[in-house]
Design brief:
The protein is rod-shaped and about 110 Å long. The N terminus is likely disordered. Strands 1-2 form a two-stranded antiparallel sheet. By secondary structure, it is mainly alpha-helical. Helix content is about 55%, strand content about 5%.
Length: about 130
């Protein structure tokens, strides 16, 4: 029987331990010789024939990992959203501020009125 054991907190892979559960050392997550956990191997459920129990175990581990990382991800998403919103509001506010500071159109209108007044004065003057 083969078992799936999560490889790391990132849960990118699961390890298949070969052997019978009754065999000595089977089911023990540590290697008896070195005292270290065995390295994980990638498993593609679509290519390999896995039992329903193995698939259910993979789903349970993935769900546990998702639940573990959800608060951190939610916090990051909220901070990212607030940051993007702040940038948008800053651009919007700066646009209004800069448009209200633009007086060159007013100056052009004043110059145009003065030019019209001079033209009328010349036309009616001499």
């Amino acid at each position: 029987m083969q078992l799936l054991v999560p490889a790391s907190p990132a849960l990118r892979v699961c390890q298949r331990l070969s052997g019978n559960m009754a065999a000595s050392g089977a089911g023990d997550p540590l290697d008896a010789e070195s005292g270290k956990a065995p390295l994980a191997q990638r498993i593609d459920p679509s290519r390999e024939k896995l039992t329903p129990q193995q698939l259910q175990f993979m789903r349970q581990v993935q769900l546990a990992q998702w639940r573990k990382t959800l608060p951190k991800r939610r916090t990051r998403n909220i901070l990212t959203g607030l940051g993007i919103g702040a940038v948008v509001l800053a651009i919007y506010g700066y646009t209004f501020y800069s448009v209200s500071q633009e007086r060159f159109l007013d100056e052009l209108e004043d110059e145009a009125k003065a030019a019209r007044a001079r033209a009328l004065a010349r036309a009616s003057g001499p």
